[in-house]
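quick one, four chains, predict together pls
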Amino acid sequence: MITNPISAMISFTCDYNEGCHPAILERLAATNLEQEPGYGDDRFTAEARAKIRQAVGCDSADVFLLTGGTQTNAIVIDSLLHSYEGAIAADTGHIAVHEAGAIEMCRHKVLTLPGREGKISAEELSGYLSAFHADASAAHMVQPGLVYISYPTEYGTIYSREELEQLHAVCLREHLPLFVDGARLGYGLACDAADIDLPQLARLCDVFYIGGTKVGALCGEAVVFPQGNAPRHFFTSVKQHGGLLAKGRLLGLQFATLFTDGLYERLSRHAIAMAMRLKAVFERAGIPFFIDSPTNQQFPILSPSHRRLLDGLVLYETWQQLPDGRCVARFATSWATTQAQIDTLASLLSPRTI
Amino acid sequence: MITNPISAMISFTCDYNEGCHPAILERLAATNLEQEPGYGDDRFTAEARAKIRQAVGCDSADVFLLTGGTQTNAIVIDSLLHSYEGAIAADTGHIAVHEAGAIEMCRHKVLTLPGREGKISAEELSGYLSAFHADASAAHMVQPGLVYISYPTEYGTIYSREELEQLHAVCLREHLPLFVDGARLGYGLACDAADIDLPQLARLCDVFYIGGTKVGALCGEAVVFPQGNAPRHFFTSVKQHGGLLAKGRLLGLQFATLFTDGLYERLSRHAIAMAMRLKAVFERAGIPFFIDSPTNQQFPILSPSHRRLLDGLVLYETWQQLPDGRCVARFATSWATTQAQIDTLASLLSPRTI
Amino acid sequence: MITNPISAMISFTCDYNEGCHPAILERLAATNLEQEPGYGDDRFTAEARAKIRQAVGCDSADVFLLTGGTQTNAIVIDSLLHSYEGAIAADTGHIAVHEAGAIEMCRHKVLTLPGREGKISAEELSGYLSAFHADASAAHMVQPGLVYISYPTEYGTIYSREELEQLHAVCLREHLPLFVDGARLGYGLACDAADIDLPQLARLCDVFYIGGTKVGALCGEAVVFPQGNAPRHFFTSVKQHGGLLAKGRLLGLQFATLFTDGLYERLSRHAIAMAMRLKAVFERAGIPFFIDSPTNQQFPILSPSHRRLLDGLVLYETWQQLPDGRCVARFATSWATTQAQIDTLASLLSPRTI
Amino acid sequence: MITNPISAMISFTCDYNEGCHPAILERLAATNLEQEPGYGDDRFTAEARAKIRQAVGCDSADVFLLTGGTQTNAIVIDSLLHSYEGAIAADTGHIAVHEAGAIEMCRHKVLTLPGREGKISAEELSGYLSAFHADASAAHMVQPGLVYISYPTEYGTIYSREELEQLHAVCLREHLPLFVDGARLGYGLACDAADIDLPQLARLCDVFYIGGTKVGALCGEAVVFPQGNAPRHFFTSVKQHGGLLAKGRLLGLQFATLFTDGLYERLSRHAIAMAMRLKAVFERAGIPFFIDSPTNQQFPILSPSHRRLLDGLVLYETWQQLPDGRCVARFATSWATTQAQIDTLASLLSPRTI
């Protein structure tokens, strides 16, 4: 029997290469033929909501389960903004670059700030808003309507509690909701550098989501309005945007499972542990990093000779081509990454082989 | 141990009350940890595409897998229309009523025709278009841009081959794409009254979709452009509408499974067989029908005494309240309906019990 | 010298066939080279606002000047609705038919009621809303977000004070803003059947506009939010919709002129007087009416022989072709209609000539 | 009698401070009561179209008359793009900054390039497109759909013929329409540095507009598709966007007048002559410029002492505050600027007064 060369390769290209945590499949199988109402009125969704409310420490939080990140960003942002308002984001923010204009499709401009390593600062935000208000032609411009950040960012970096508190303070002062894209939230909270947890995050923003797709689920993002502050008719907004699943049980069961016995946290910590070992592998091989990421995405700068070592054996994403011939690569670990995969990479990059 | 009274009830409310066909769960489990690329570049999606192309008899068909019906309708319609164009549909069409304005969110008006039992006729369509073109103020009106029909319709009825040929001929003459919403396509094709099959449907329209959510899948609709006539950048449109799943394997595997060894057809025939038995139960109980449906949705007219017999034991949807105190109910069977469920219903409605 | 046969014809096709009242041109000429700020900050707009506030009897009314009716309808409706909300209107309403989908372009469905002679009743509205709230699937449908009526309607009819009070009461109860399209408002208020005036209208709705284009201006509609209740950033909404004129003075000067010394009312009364004479001409000729309109639009039913009498001499709009060979015609008078034009029509239709 | 201090001031704030060229008012008065069809079917619009076709040297050009610049940009761009496509523009482009999100309201992202002095270069454009096509995630991004430039730019600068030819060549190669915003087109073509004329511009782009509002008209922009290449149903698009004027004669007459006997060109040359004298005034006063503009907008850098000299006597726009306490000001001349106004400014800034 011939092994498929593609599937024999190890892939670190992203954190959605595998299916889902086996506990989810087991429970899907165990409850498969139970009859449940559609559109999120099922008992699994009720359970997921209750467990998420507990995990975020907000009894009255509104929780909605959607299928993917771009969809979630578009629906949340659209439901919070008037059409003449835009979303402030780092120019590297996912909504500004890799969502094919999903925010614009909802008629909102993404108002970009330069940011640094994927993050924007309270000072930068404050300066932007001051300049906007001081501009005599502000009424002819898109009005700032909310602030979007990602935790962790597209560069794997995270905000400190202090940075979040400062951003939140500016947002409060300016009456701008603060929205945290948590497509990889678990990985951000589980890393060593993190100094917040879920309940603290919930206190520091107006809405955020807990990414499932990249942290053990087949699909699914759980939107949390911590203060029960979901916009009116949010359900209908989800429907209008095509984001409502008939079999809401699929999402409900997954989040109910992930938030049982700390599974979400355990999976997150595993991915971080693997990422730190991955990082060590590169360091031992003398490979520098483009950015110092504490989370599951690592950005080593590979020389052509390094790339040749991995060629046909290890998959990763080419992030940026550098003028000197090297390239910034992205390696992602996930809940499913194995020690064996790290070992294989290590053996390929070990000094002896170079 | 106390049984949950809700889950003990039998539900005929819809055809998405259960999970999915066990073969899907088995294959999900078997392949769960295989690494596959995201966004539909996985091997399951490739397999699903190949099998669907074969099933529809179009080697060059473009096939895209989306998650739900409202989403699919919005993306397909939006990708085919200019913003000044509308979609012609029966006034009972799903896009005209129960999609929360998803088509309008894409800036398109739904141009409704009165229809009959959920269907529009070639004659009615032709008359509408003639009147439109003859109207001196046509340039001030939304331009007709495509024709939307559902097969089967929201009332369970189906179009005959001849009716489809006539509609298609009008569409060809008027350069209007014909789009068939097949959320319950399997049930339409499997019923006794059907005189078309998948390849014939593919020849009689410009784009259609094969509903998975209601026919054995957890989620998923397979959009087919039979002649390889997908609009340019359709992938990016899907992304912009928030319809792209990172783990496309979830959709790919489901359709690959449903289109292996005729499973989709078998599941569809099962639901129809159950629906015919359900129909017979009502007939034996002397209960009339609001509409003569040959598919998996049945619309008996229940008297208050009939309703009392089912109260707390059988769930169904109240479709329409009649002035005489009776109501039109909707009972749906599906791939998961069991003979035992039909028997229970029959025993409740048997003449002796009234 | 040969006379242009087209321009020699008399036209009753619409109420925007001529330029504007000469007083407007005179004042444009007198102030032409004065320097004024742009975008509505000019002194003419300030004057227009003050005079309109006085005319409507609301010192704190917000007044905005836009260029045309379709634009005004779209901007007002879009600024009042969330995207999942629709505008309730008669199915003959201008927004439902002749605005090329301008409301849908703003993502809102027009929710149509059958109406009668262009009007909807409080009872019909109330029934619709009750049915909507009672519908189990209401959350899957476009939410009713405001009520749109036109005064006078597209059929020339008007609402009585009592009818408006009843509609307003339903709107208050249901928290739905009531928006009155007043593209021909002057003609509605000036007709004999009218039992309201501008201040009364202002008390019976949440927003309305005073049509200028059809009542003596070159262009322009004055939107009035009687209680100072304009949506936040309405100016920016106007700009985003492309409705902001750089030289706002053009609109300001026109409304300032029309609302000086009762000109708007005088012009309106003139058009109504001409319409009543026009009506008498048809009555004397034994020509029946499709509808009994008290305003400047009259809808006589013309036989082929009547049409031949007017052929090449009088222009009018063909409204509807009747099966018996006759047609419903629309004849519109305006502020510019002359007694001579009425006389010419009368001579053509006088019994002797038939 | 007390003179209004505001209106006694001289304003150089913009080029739309006055009404319109007197010839327009005269012709409006002369033809005011002639009956003409609405919506652009009038004889003035026909005349304007014919004269513009002649002026641009394209017998088969499609010409549409709209009311303002933001509206025109939105309608043209929306009619040329699919929703997943964006408009490439300089980050200082009007559509990117001062149109309140009018392009986003049509669901399109503005894809900004850094540019230089308001201009983008063929090289920069080409580099952007190469990088886009080389990006592995391009299908997840907004697709480039057209190129927008302004002539002259928001900084008063112009493109040379060679620069336009190079941009056009890149656009042709990439199948991207080139759209030229000509809100101040006359001033761009009339300046000494210009090396193209209207027919040459028409050959170097796919669509452009001839600004009327800022060059002698009360309102109005003439969109020209030189090769008769207007998108299908452009009229209906204009209507749907709320850009259609019922009394199209107002726009038709203005452009017919401006394009009779070279009036548009004469007015443009006058504004440039005034701008050059204005420039000389600043130069003589030793005041430096932020940018070397050859057109009607001049950007002197004013010190606080200069500003005090003008305080309460001359109005201008504050463009940008500099860290050293000075500010970049914008002074605009127009068709209506008088020598007396320049002389007053000169006397205020003359060396003796400082």
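Residues 5-17+264-353 of chain C form a domain with the Aspartate Aminotransferase, domain 1 fold (CATH 3.90.1150.10).
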